[in-house]
C-alpha cells in the first residue's frame, strides 16, 4: 500500500506537474485567506490583518520550494530541470563552452587512448587459459650474464629431472625457418619446441592436433604445426593440409595441426612450430633454449623461483664452467610485455598530468565565469533556492561540460588508437589487443565524472559562501572585495599549479628529446651513408647445401652476379649487422692467458663476414690488415678484433699477432691469429656500449647456411629488385627477406624511443599551451579588474612602461613560482624514467634550465598582451567607468 | 511560550489531530496549538512539507472541500495506513517518554 501510494505520487509529480503545482498554490492561498479572515473577524482591519498574516507565514515561495523538495521524484525532476537549465546557460556562452569542451576532449581523449593502449598491453587477459600460472624460465650465469639468458639441452634435462614446481617443463627456441612446399620458398618465423609446449599453453588447435608426449624423443618423426595466418596464406585454409609433407630448413616434416590466429607465442610473428628432438648432449651448449611451464596447483611463482634456484645450485656444483648461475622465472605477461612497461608507465603518468592541467585550466575558467554570475546566484538564493540546491545545479553544469568533453574526446581517443595501431612503433607487443572497448568507455565515463566534479567543486563552493547583501547591493557587477579576492587567490594558485605541472611534463619531454638526439647521433660504427647501404637476408634451402663446399660456391656465385648489377659499388656477406642484429655472442680465450679455474673472459659479439664487409660498410681499419683472398680454408685461421676488445684485453701489448679462440669447455678448435683491429660497431643496439667483438673470415668458417648480403650503392633502395634477381639467378630456391636500407634499420632501432618522445612532447606541448592560456586568462582578468587603479596611476603620472612592467611582473611572479615548484617535482619524478634515457642524466641541468627559460618566455608573452592593453588605458576613460 | 518541535513529534501530532477529525491546513495547526495548550506553534513552513510528505507516504489522503465560511479548502484525512502509523508512533512515544521520565526522576 505505501509503495503503491508512492508510485502514484511519483507518476503525478512527474507527469501531472502543472496540476500538482496549481494545487499547492491554491492550498497556500486558502491558508493565507483563512488566516486573514480569522484576524478580520477578531477585529483587525483588512490591511493590517493581511500584513500580519504574511509575516506569520513567512515566504510563500520558500514554503513551496520546501514542499517541492520533499516530493517523491524531486531529485529526478530537479536534475532534469538543472540539465535543461545548464544546456541553456552553456549555449548562451558558446565561446566559453567550446574552449572548455575542447580542453577536456583533448585531456579525456588522450587519456582514454592511452588507457586503451596500456590496458591492451598490460592488463587485458592473454589468449591463454590461466595465463598467470604460466612462467618462462631463463638461465643466467657468468660469464654470459644475460638477464633473460638461454639454457642448453643438458641444463633442461637437469631442470626437468629435479623440478618440483612446474607441471611439465618445456623448452623452445625461436628461429627463422625456410619453408618449402608448393609455390615459392619462403622464410617464416618459427620455433623448435619440446613436446609439452602446447599442453603448457593449453590452447586447442583449430584443426588437427598438437605434439604428443614423447614426440620430442631422439629419432621421433618430424612434425609441424602451422599458424592460422600461414595456413590461410599458403595453403588456402584447406583442411587437406593435415598429413602433407613440407620442407622445413630443407628437411621434410608432416603437418599435423593448425593453431588459431590468437596463439602468438613465443613471438607475435611465429607461424611455424616443429618438434624439437631432445638429444642428450655430450657437452654443455649450445645455449639456444628458454623454458616455459605451468605452475603446479597451489605453487606460487616465488616458490617456483626458490625451486629453480636450488636446481641452479646443483647444476653449478657439477659444472665448474658456470659462475653465479640462477634460473630466473618470469610470468608470461611480463615476458611478453618486456621492456615496454616502463615507457608505457611514464606515458600514462604524463597523460594523466595533461588531464590534470586541463582540469585546472577549466576550473580556472569556471571560477572566472562564476564571478560574473554572482548576481544571478544571489538573486536565486534570495528567491528561496537552497544553497545545496545551487551547488547541485552548478555541479550539473560542470558534469554537462565534462560529458560533452568526453563525447568529443571519444573521437580523439579513437583517432589516437588508430594512429598507434597503424604506427605500431618498435613492434609493441600485444598491439592487436589494443582497442576502444567497454573497459575504455567505462574509464572514459569515470574520467568525465571525476573531472566534472573536480573543476566544478571550487566555483560551486565559492557560490555557497556568497554574501547576499553585498552582492545584491552591487547590482551583480562583480565585487572586488570579499569572495572576489578569495576567488582570485584560488585562480592564482591554480595557475601556479598549472605552470608547475607543465614544467614537470616539459622536463620529461626535454630529457627524452635530448636522449633521442644522442641516440640518433650514434652511427652504429660504420662510415658509409646509411641510405646507401642495402641489406638482404639470404637463406638457401635444400639438403644439398648441407655440404659446405656447395654453400661456399653458391655464395661466391651470388656475390659475383650481384657485383655486376649496375650501380653496385661494393658488396659483401656477413652474419651480423648493426645496429642490433647480433648473430652470436660467446666467451673467448687468449692464448697464454692464465685464468683462475672456472674463470673466463665475458661473452663478446662473434661476427663471420666476407673480406669486403669492412670496405662495404666503411668500417675504419685502425691497425694491421683486413681479411684478404689469401685467407682461405686451408690457410692459417685469422681474426680481426674491435677497438674495444683490443682496449679491454690487450692493454699492455700489441694485439696483432696474438691468438684467440672461443672458450667453450673441451674445445679442440684451433687458435686464430689476430691480424687487424677495426673501429667499434654496434651489434646489440644503439643504446648499449657492449662493443667488444671479433670477426672471423667467412672464407675460413661456415657456421650457418644463412647470411646477410650487404650492398653499397648511391642508388640505395632503388636497386633492390635487380640485386634480388641476381641473387635468385644463382639459385631460384634461395629465399630473400628483410630487404631494407641501413637507414630503415636505424630508424626501426629508435622507433620505440621516438614514439615515447613524440608522445611525451605532444603532451608537453598541450600542457604548455594550456598553461599559457591560464596565465593569459588570469592576467587579463586582473587588468580588467584594475582598470580603475591603473587609470589613477596613469593620471598621477605613471608612464606606459611602468604600467607594462607592473602587469608583466605579476605574470612573471606567477610563472616563477610555478617553475620553482615544477622543478622540485621534476627532480622527484624524472628519475623514474632514467631507464629510458640515453646519454643524459635524469636531472640534466641544461634541460631543466632550457625548460624553465622556455616556460618563463611563454608566460611573459602571455602576460604581455593584457599588459599592452593596460598600458593603453586612457586615464579619463578608466576613471569615468566607475 | 511556543516551543520548537522535537524531531519526529510533528508527524505524531498531525496524525493524532487527524484521527479525531478531518481538517485543512490552518485547522491542523490551530488544533495542535489547542491540544498542546499552545506549547507548539506549527508554522506553515514545516506544516506543509510534512503534510505532503505524509500524503506521499500513504498515511494521509487529501480532498478539496468546503470550509467553515463556505470557501474551498484542502482537507486531510487519515488512511488505514495512517492509523497504523499513529498507533506505532504513539506506542514508541509512550516508551520514550516513560524512559525519559524515569531517567529524570532517578537520583
Report on this structure.
By secondary structure, chain A is α+β, with helices and mostly antiparallel strands. Chain A has 4 domains: 2-72, no CATH class; 139-327, no CATH class; 340-520 and 751-880, no CATH class; 530-748, no CATH class. Chain A contains 27 helices and 24 strands. In chain A, the strands form 4 sheets. In chain A, strands 15, 16, 17, 18, 19, 20, 21 and 22 form an 8-stranded mixed beta sheet that branches. A 6-stranded mixed beta barrel of chain A has the order 3-4-9-6-8-7. In chain A, a hairpin with a 5-residue loop joins strand 3 (170-180) and strand 4 (186-193). In chain A, helix 2 (17-41) packs across helix 3 (46-57) and helix 5 packs across helix 14 (387-423). The radius of gyration of chain A is 38 Å and the shape is elongated. Chain B has 107 residues and is an alpha+beta fold. In chain B, 58% of the residues lie in helices and 15% in strands. Chain B contains 4 helices and 3 strands. The two termini of chain B are 29 Å apart. The model of chain B has no long low-confidence stretch (mean pLDDT 85). At the A-B interface, helix 1, helix 2 and helix 4 of A face helix 3 and strand 3 of B.
What attributes does this structure have?
heterodimer, A: 882 residues, alpha+beta, 4 domains, eight-stranded mixed β-sheet, six-stranded mixed beta barrel, 27 helices, 24 strands, 52% helix, 14% strand, elongated, B: 107 residues, Arc Repressor Mutant, subunit A, three-stranded antiparallel β-sheet, globular
Task: Give me a quick take on this structure.
Chain A has 882 residues and is α+β, with helices and mostly antiparallel strands. Helix content of chain A is 52%, strand content 14%.
Structure classification of chain A:
alpha+beta
What is the total number of structural domains of chain A? 4
The major β-sheet of chain B equals: 3 strands, antiparallel
Total count of domains of chain B: 1
Quaternary structure type = heterodimer
* Low-pLDDT residue spans of chain A: 476-482
Report the CATH superfamily of chain B: Winged helix-like DNA-binding domain superfamily/Winged helix DNA-binding domain
- Give the count of helical stretches of chain B: 4
Total beta strand runs of chain B: 3
Spatial order of strands in the largest sheet of chain B: 1-3-2
Distance, first to last CA of chain A = 64 Å
Category from helices, strands and their pairing of chain B: alpha+beta
Amino acid at each position: 500500500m505505501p509503495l503503491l501510494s508512492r508510485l502514484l505520487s511519483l507518476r503525478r509529480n512527474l507527469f501531472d506537474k502543472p496540476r500538482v503545482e496549481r494545487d499547492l498554490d491554491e492550498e497556500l492561498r486558502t491558508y493565507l485567506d483563512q488566516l486573514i479572515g480569522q484576524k478580520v473577524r477578531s477585529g483587525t482591519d483588512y490591511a493590517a490583518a493581511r500584513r500580519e498574516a504574511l509575516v506569520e507565514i513567512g515566504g510563500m515561495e520558500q514554503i513551496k520550494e520546501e514542499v517541492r523538495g520533499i516530493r517523491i521524484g524531486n531529485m529526478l525532476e530537479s536534475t532534469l530541470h538543472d540539465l535543461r537549465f545548464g544546456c541553456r546557460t552553456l549555449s548562451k556562452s558558446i565561446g566559453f563552452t567550446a574552449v572548455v569542451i575542447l580542453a577536456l576532449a583533448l585531456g579525456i581523449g588522450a587519456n582514454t587512448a592511452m588507457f586503451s593502449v596500456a590496458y591492451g598491453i598490460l592488463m587485458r587477459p592473454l589468449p591463454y587459459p590461466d595465463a598467470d600460472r604460466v612462467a618462462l624460465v631463463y638461465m643466467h650465469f657468468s660469464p654470459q650474464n644475460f638477464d633473460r639468458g638461454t639454457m642448453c639441452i643438458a641444463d633442461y634435462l637437469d631442470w626437468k629431472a629435479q623440478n618440483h614446481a612446474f607441471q611439465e617443463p618445456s623448452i623452445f627456441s625461436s628461429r627463422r625457418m625456410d619453408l618449402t612446399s608448393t609455390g615459392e620458398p619462403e622464410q617464416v618465423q618459427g620455433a623448435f619446441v619440446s613436446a609439452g609446449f602446447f599442453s603448457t599453453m593449453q590452447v586447442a588447435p583449430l584443426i588437427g592436433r598438437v605434439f604428443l608426449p614423447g614426440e620430442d624423443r631422439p629419432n621421433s618423426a618430424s612434425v609441424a604445426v602451422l599458424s592460422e595466418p600461414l595456413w590461410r596464406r599458403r595453403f588456402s585454409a584447406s583442411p587437406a593440409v593435415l598429413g602433407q609433407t613440407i620442407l622445413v630448413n630443407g628437411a621434410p616434416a608432416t603437418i599435423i595441426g593448425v593453431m588459431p590466429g590468437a596463439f602468438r607465442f613465443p613471438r607475435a610473428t611465429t607461424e611455424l612450430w616443429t618438434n624439437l628432438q631432445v638429444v642428450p648432449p655430450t657437452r654443455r651448449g649450445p645455449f639456444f633454449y628458454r623454458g616455459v611451464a605451468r605452475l603446479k596447483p597451489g605453487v606460487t611463482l616465488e616458490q617456483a623461483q626458490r625451486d629453480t634456484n636450488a636446481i641452479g645450485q646443483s647444476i653449478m656444483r657439477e659444472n665448474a664452467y658456470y659462475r653465479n648461475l640462477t634460473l630466473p622465472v618470469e610470468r608470461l605477461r611480463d615476458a611478453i610485455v618486456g621492456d615496454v612497461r616502463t615507457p608505457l608507465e611514464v606515458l600514462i603518468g604524463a597523460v594523466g598530468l595533461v588531464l590534470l592541467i586541463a582540469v585546472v585550466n577549466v576550473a580556472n575558467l569556471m571560477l572566472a565565469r562564476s564571478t560574473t554570475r554572482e548576481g544571478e546566484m544571489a538573486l536565486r538564493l534570495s528567491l528561496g533556492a537552497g544553497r545545496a540546491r545551487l551547488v547541485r545545479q552548478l555541479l550539473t553544469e560542470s558534469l554537462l561540460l565534462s560529458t560533452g568533453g568526453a563525447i568529443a574526446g571519444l573521437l580523439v581517443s579513437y583517432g589516437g588508437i588508430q594512429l598507434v595501431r597503424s604506427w605500431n612503433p618498435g613492434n609493441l607487443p600485444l598491439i592487436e589487443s589494443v582497442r576502444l572497448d567497454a573497459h575504455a568507455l567505462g574509464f572514459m565515463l569515470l574520467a568525465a565524472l571525476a573531472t566534472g566534479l573536480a573543476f566544478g567543486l571550487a566555483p560551486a563552493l565559492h557560490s555557497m559562501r556568497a554574501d547576499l547583501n553585498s552582492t545584491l547591493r552591487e547590482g551583480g557587477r562583480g565585487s572586488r572585495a570579499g569572495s572576489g579576492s578569495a576567488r582570485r587567490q584560488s585562480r592564482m594558485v591554480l595557475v601556479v599549479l598549472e605552470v608547475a605541472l607543465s614544467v614537470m611534463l616539459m622536463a620529461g619531454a626535454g630529457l627524452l628529446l635530448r636522449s633521442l638526439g644522442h641516440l640518433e647521433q650514434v652511427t652504429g660504427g660504420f662510415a658509409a651513408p646509411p641510405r646507401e647501404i642495402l641489406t638482404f637476408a639470404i637463406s638457401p634451402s635444400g639438403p644439398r647445401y648441407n655440404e659446405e663446399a656447395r654453400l661456399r660456391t653458391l655464395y661466391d656465385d651470388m656475390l659475383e652476379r650481384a657485383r655486376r648489377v649496375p650501380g653496385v659499388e661494393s658488396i659483401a656477406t656477413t652474419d651480423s649487422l648493426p645496429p642490433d642484429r647480433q648473430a652470436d655472442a660467446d666467451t673467448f680465450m687468449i692464448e697464454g692467458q692464465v685464468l683462475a679455474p672456472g674463470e673466463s673472459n665475458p661473452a663478446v659479439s662473434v661476427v663471420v663476414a666476407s673480406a669486403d664487409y669492412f670496405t662495404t660498410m666503411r668500417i675504419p681499419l685502425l691497425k694491421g690488415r683486413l681479411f684478404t683472398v689469401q685467407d682461405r680454408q686451408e690457410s692459417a685461421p685469422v681474426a680481426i678484433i674491435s677497438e674495444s676488445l683490443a682496449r679491454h684485453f690487450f692493454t699492455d701489448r700489441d694485439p696483432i699477432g696474438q691468438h684467440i679462440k672461443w672458450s667453450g669447455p673441451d674445445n679442440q678448435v684451433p687458435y686464430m691469429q689476430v691480424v687487424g683491429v677495426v673501429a667499434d660497431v654496434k651489434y646489440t643496439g644503439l643504446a648499449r656500449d657492449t662493443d667488444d667483438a671479433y670477426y672471423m673470415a667467412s672464407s675460413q668458417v661456415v657456421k650457418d647456411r644463412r647470411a646477410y648480403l650487404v650492398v653499397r650503392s648511391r642508388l640505395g633502395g632503388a636497386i633492390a629488385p635487380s640485386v634480388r634477381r641476381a641473387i635468385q639467378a644463382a639459385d631460384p630456391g634461395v629465399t630473400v627477406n628483410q630487404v631494407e636500407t641501413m637507414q630503415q634499420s636505424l630508424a626501426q632501432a629508435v622507433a620505440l624511443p621516438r614514439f615515447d618522445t613524440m608522445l611525451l612532447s605532444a603532451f608537453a606541448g598541450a600542457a604548455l599551451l594550456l598553461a599559457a592560456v591560464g596565465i593569459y586568462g588570469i592576467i587579463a582578468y586582473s587588468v580588467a579588474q584594475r582598470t580603475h587603479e591603473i587609470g589613477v596611476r596613469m593620471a598621477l603620472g605613471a608612464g606606459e612602461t611602468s604600467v607594462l612592467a607592473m602587469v608583466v611582473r605579476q605574470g612573471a611572479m606567477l610563472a616563477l613560482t610555478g617553475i620553482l615548484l615544477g622543478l622540485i617535482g621534476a627532480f622527484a619524478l624524472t628519475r623514474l624514467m632514467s631507464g629510458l634515457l640515453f646519454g643524459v642524466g635524469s636531472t640534466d641541468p641544461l634541460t631543466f634550465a632550457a625548460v624553465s627559460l622556455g616556460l618563463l618566455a611563454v608566460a611573459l608573452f602571455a602576460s604581455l598582451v593584457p599588459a599592452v592593453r593596460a598600458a593603453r588605458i586612457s586615464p579619463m576613460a578608466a576613471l569615468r567607468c566607475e | 511560550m511556543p516551543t520548537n518541535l522535537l524531531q519526529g513529534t510533528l508527524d505524531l501530532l498531525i496524525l493524532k489531530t487527524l484521527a479525531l477529525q478531518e481538517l485543512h491546513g490552518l485547522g491542523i495547526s490551530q488544533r495542535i496549538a489547542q491540544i498542546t495548550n499552545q506549547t507548539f506553534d506549527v508554522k506553515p513552513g514545516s506544516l506543509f512539507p510534512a503534510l505532503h510528505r505524509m500524503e506521499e507516504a500513504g498515511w494521509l489522503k487529501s480532498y478539496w472541500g468546503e470550509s467553515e465560511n463556505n470557501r474551498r479548502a484542502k482537507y486531510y484525512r487519515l488512511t488505514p495506513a495512517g492509523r497504523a502509523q499513529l498507533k506505532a508512533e504513539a506506542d514508541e512515544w509512550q516508551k520514550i517518554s516513560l524512559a525519559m521520565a524515569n531517567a529524570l526522576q532517578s537520583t
